[in-house]
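Lab notebook, bench 4. We co-purified these components, and the gel suggests they stay together. Before we commit to crystallization screens, I want a quick structural picture of the whole thing.
Request: model the full complex, all chains together.
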Amino acid sequence: MSDYAFFHKQFMPLSEAKISILTHALHYGTACFEGIRGNWDSEQKRFCIFRIQDHYKRMFDGCRILKINLPYSVDELCQLTKELLESSGYREDVYIRPLAYKSSEAVGVRLHNLEDDFLIVVTTLPTYLDIDNGVRCCTSSWRRVDDTMIPPRGKICGIYVNSALAKTEAQESGFDEAILLTQDGHVCEGSGENIFLILGGKLVTPPSSDNILMGITRDTVMKLAKNELGIDTIERQVDRSELYVAEECFFTGTAANMAPILEIDHRPIGTGEIGKMTAKLQKLFAEVILGSNPKYHDWYYLVSPKAVTA
Ligand SMILES: Cc1ncc(COP(=O)(O)O)c(C=O)c1O
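Here is the predicted assembly.
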């Protein structure tokens, strides 16, 4: 199976999709992207692209911030994604990566007077975090970028240098993932995930005003907790030390899914095992992302490849 791309308004093998080394976005990070999951249901023989409309709506927010003109509607972007997935021939979980970027071959830091372009690539995603056995984390010495620096509500490419610094520091120190704090020392999020805590039996997560990406998995988990377990999520500032005293803790993200956190800064979280509430939410989440629950049909964009070969 080959990786495929939608590039320069055409579908083509990834190996043929090339950009110039002078591309503005390559030099200055002037681009924004999405990460969308296509979950392969081997019984139904179809993909469930999960909350694709919400991903593209969020991409429009990033484009507004970066003054990128995306000449498609959300429905057109969904259709292009569907066609790309069909032509790829994959019959397994896939990761869809749309990217809107400043495409001019131009030197000079700015957002205006530049051309824009858009591409989508579909590929597979190796296991990102160990969702079955949980992860060990550290709080990062790097602080999360603030809305007054590069707005984190957009998935803006340049921001990911901040994430990469934190992730590499964590992994080179023997941890699986970093937890970044805000400038004023409150818990923000992982390098590519939102974070939740169970504190005094309540589900708690940092608010949008604390420079998090407004995660679609975060929203999914909050809705599942409310609808299926009758649990409200409290969105409020979280102190670093609350991480150490939480009964349970987990990450959410498109790449990570729901990943239990078992240890932070060499302190076990709760019993040091996957907590009960985390396990319940993980089960609900794993079921819902396959696309079979009519209650959540708005979240599903189903793609049945024409000729199934495997
Ligand atoms: C910094 C950051 N936070 C949180 C998330 C989780 O967002 P979502 O659940 O929409 O994938 C991501 C992943 O996209 C991310 O990069």
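Residues 35, 163, 189, 192-194, 213, 215-218, 252-254 surround pyridoxal-5'-phosphate (CB under 6 Å). Worth comparing against the SEC data before the next meeting. The chain has a mean pLDDT of 96.
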